[in-house]
Amino acid sequence: MNSGQLLLIAILLSSFIPGIIIFCLPEEKHRLRTILNLCGSLVKISLVLLMNAGIYYGHVFEIRIPLIPGVELLLNGDPLSALFATLSSVLWLLTTIYAVGYLEGSPNRSHFFGYFSLCVTVTIGIALAGNLVTFLLFYEMLTLATYPLVIHRGTEKSLRAGRNYLIYAFSGGAVFLVAVVWLQAVVGPMDFSAAGFSPSYIESHGSVLALIFVLLIIGVGVKAALVPLHGWLPQAMVAPAPVSALLHAVAVVKAGAFGIIRIVLDVYGAHNLLLLGVLPLLAAVATFTILYGSVRALQQDDLKRRLAFSTVSQVSYIALGMSMVDQPLAVIGALVHLVHQGLMKITLFFCAGNLAETLGIHRISEMRGVARRMPLTMAAFSIAALGMIGIPPTVGFVSKWYLGLGGLAGGNWWLLVVLVVSSLLNAWYFLPILIRAWFGKQQGPWPEEQYVGRFETRLMLLGPPVITALIVLVAGLVANAQISPLAWVRFIVRGYSL
Amino acid sequence: MFQADTPAWIIAPVVLPLIAGLFCFLFKRRIFIIALAAALANFFVACFLIYQFLVFGSMRCYIGGWQPPLGITLRADGPALLMLLMTAVTGLAVTLYARGYFSCRIADSERAGRHQRQQRYFWPLWMLLLAGLNGLFLSGDIFNLYVTLELVAISAASLAALSGKPASQRASFRYLLISLLGSLTYLLGVVFLYRTCGVLDLDLLRNLSGNGAGVRAALALLTVGLLLKTALVPLHFWLPPAHANALAPVSVILSALVVKGSFYLLFRFWFELFSPIVTQAGLNFMGALGAVAIIWGAVQAIRQQRLKLMVAYSTVSQLGYLFVAFPLSRAVEGAQVWSIVIFIALTHACAKSAMFMVAGSIYLHLGHDRIRDLAGVRASLPVTVFAYGIAGVSLMGLPPSGAFIAKWMLLSSSLVSGQWWWALVIVAGSLLAMVYVFRVMSRFFVIPEGEPLKKPAALSPLLEWPALILALISLSLGLLAPWILHILSQGTVGLVRVFPGGLS
Predict the structure, then answer these.
(1) Is the pLDDT of residue B454 over 80?
(2) Residues of B whose CB is below 8 A from A140
(3) Chain A hits for B423, Cβ within 8 Å
(4) Which of B381, B398, B424 to mutate to probe the A interface, most A CBs <10 Å?
(5) B405 vs A68: CB contact, 8 Å cut-off?
């Protein structure tokens, strides 16, 4: 066992062990629990950064565990997994801080934080998975680890949402399993690699491989909330705000989008997909999802539901970018959007949670003048919302810029139309919120105001959204610097000969 | 005389529990210690036999030195030893669990006398059953197999009757009759075979079985007899009431071990003894019954209102997977059926034991097992609920459980051979399993409104931890896969060649 393998194991254990200890802790030891959580996530971030440095300088991080001939578990740190692992571990730290503040005094916290830690362990596992079997293993475990969080409140409504979530997620998992087995039956065991499988299979098994591609995309599309597989996501909004943040920005939806990226880039490979001719299908689904999600978001008055449909729409930019996999610029846009969307969406959900927790505001119609009561929260919200629309210098602009450039380079002018229409729709459903919050007049008392002390809300609730909003701004401003998500994504794309 | 390579060690798993059962019957006190010692010894002997097998190869012991066709033969090969180990591990856990179970019930002063009586009968019968099962896995002679089958049937039916409630009396009586009918049919098959071939030893039979009408009739009779005992749909009707109405440790034994015994024989007959005369149509027929069992059992499990009945119907469903392996056995070069059924059997034995233990603990804790009213159990029995979840995940065949490995092999062989309908059944079965597992799971997570009237007493760790440990074993079996395949590929079996994928 070399140091690279130890590092991979340590990265997984740094959240798994705190999670197991937290399960065993009695309910009232909240200080010890918080310390464990924070230490775990700080350790995890430093280990992940260490791995990133190693990957940058060309070290190999690889663990192979054979199960049966042809089936093995493979953990592998490559630049792409580093991108997702860094995103998840950084956002996990912030979400944990937020959750500690959010759940203060509520029951069953040891269970909550236990599953929370398991959840991030599994997400990192998805990031590090080096073949489809390992990906499948962690993908199914992610469903299991998030289910208790979705139904955490234990009400009938949350149980219903949880049931739907399970049905969608496990059906997707089953389709994915069949596709993985089938793919292996056709092309034999394979790891994620830049080349994909040998093009000679396309001549002999072209239509089967196209069908398997569709099945694989359906399998991960459930979690990525591609329409019409998105039904679980808006319902899952009954979960507490930190869980929504986790579902939308850190783990679940992201795992689906990451799966799409892996399948397109590392399983099939750009060359094979062009030969198969299935990419227009992916583009069509992604475009439809983008527009449909935005239109549905327009109709929602419930703030969290509007954000949920916005996620449906925004995550599909990633799928859209991957559908033009022959254009490096579009791939850059898609990959960098994985990070950027996470940052923006987590800010929005933190802010929505703050409004609900501090003032009892759940609906957009109740938000008139709320910016005067909670200026910092709404400032963070505004930055993230403007980012979603794609206004420079936020990170949202950077993603859309690269997607657009990629479309133009490939001669797909329709992509520009999609981007413009979708940005207009984004503006249409975000700007009224901002106008109402900043310029509206408060009408009557807030629904359920709580006294919280010196700041506009508890410090642990206020800190995380402010930090993520700052990152949204700064990462957009310094996108061209040596260290930024964009720089790392360029490093990734250099590894693929596109 | 007992060296490391002495074949006589094979006798120990049969004789030890038999002696322990006798002592349990004779002594009035410290029965548990005797049983525990026997279960532990059984476990260590099973481990030792596997070690011996890996080092010295397949073992064969002629008791009293009488060679076949006269003497009693015991022999150990890979599948037999894995089944033996499965029985030993589950048996050890059940022994501990039963101790906790009876202590808990005797502590209830109202019916202490009755429970004490139940416990007195439980230990000797359980030891007898253990001896029978071990003998069944190890016997190398088709008539001795009949004897062990009878031993298992009679002790299992008496165990099922222990609870003493009218429903359980009826169910166990029916169980006894069905078991005896199965044994008699089996005996008739043995008679046919003996009439045609003139020997009873399995190895000698393998050389003799030709395509005669007598042999085919024998196969049909043996199959029907064993199917009755294995409870394959449509012969499953006796199983859910018998398993659900028994005492919790008994349900564990019946569901995890006893049905596996008869299946193991059936499988041996179909794929070793009679493999020359088995047709693809016959295999397809068994597979079709298995597919019906998977779907029907799962649908029934979803409809149940009581936890124990739900778990019992889930057994009906899971047994179906064992039979779906039949038609796929010839699908790809180098049949991998032994490894498939062994993985299913091992996972199911551990996971289902854990589930019945959980159901029993919850019954003791709440005084009922109505699925509707399980709210709040998570807070009071976290370990048990966790065990339930993990066992459920294994039953659904999610990675890295052993059932996942089996499912992978089944799916892969059905897709490669173009028999995609089996793949559909397997996937549908695991989705239905998800529904029945999580229908119960979600009730655990409901936070009950208001304070409970009286806080139920905490359960002894003997009731909670064996379940969790078995559940964890069933989940991690997939990671042990290379080791299990190694055992299966040793020695005489010769059936294991896993298809790694890749059409060229």
Answers:
(1) no
(2) 398-399
(3) 178
(4) B398
(5) yes
SS (H, E, C) chain A: CCHHHHHHHHHHHHHHHHHHHHHHCCCCCHHHHHHHHHHHHHHHHHHHHHHHHHHHCCCCEEEEEEEECCEEEEEEECHHHHHHHHHHHHHHHHHHHHHHHHCCCCCCHHHHHHHHHHHHHHHHHHHHECEHHHHHHHHHHHHHHHHHHHCCCCCHHHHHHHHHHHHHHHHHHHHHHHHHHHHHHHHCCCECCCCCCCCHHHHHHHHHHHHHHHHHHHHHHHHHCCCCCCCHHHHHHHCCHHHHHHHHHHCHHHHHHHHHHHHHHHHHHHHHHHHHCCHHHHHHHHHHHHHHHHHHHHHCCEHHHHHHHHHHHHHHHHHHHHCCCCCHHHHHHHHHHHHHHHHHHHHHHHHHHHHHHHHCCCEHHHCCCHHHHCHHHHHHHHHHHHHHHCCCCCHHHHHHHHHHHHHHHCCCHHHHHHHHHHHHHHHHHHHHHHHHHHHCCCCCCCCCCCCCCCCCCCHHHHHHHHHHHHHHHHHHHCCCCCCCHHHHHHHHHHCCCC
Residue B61 is inside which H or E element, if any?
strand B59-63
Residue B375: closest C-alpha in chain A: A154
C-beta atoms of A163 and B447 within 8 A: no
Residues of B in contact with A147 (CB under 8 A): 438
Residue A108's closest chain B neighbor by CA?
A: B379
pLDDT at B222: 93
**Which neighbouring-strand residues pair with A72?**
A66
- Chain A residues closer than 8 Å to B382 by CB: 23, 111
Among A181, A271, A262, which Cα is nearest to A217's?
Answer: A262
pLDDT for B113-137, tens place per residue?
A: 888 888 889 999 999 999 999 999 9
Residue of B nearest to A73 (CA): B479
Quote the pLDDT of residue B334.
47
Answering whether pTM is above 0.80, one says: yes
Considering only the beta carbons, identify the residue of A174, A184, A204 that sits closest to B501. Answer: A184
pLDDT tens for A285-306 read: 999 999 999 999 999 989 999 9
On average, the pLDDT of chain B sits at 87
ipTM over 0.95: no
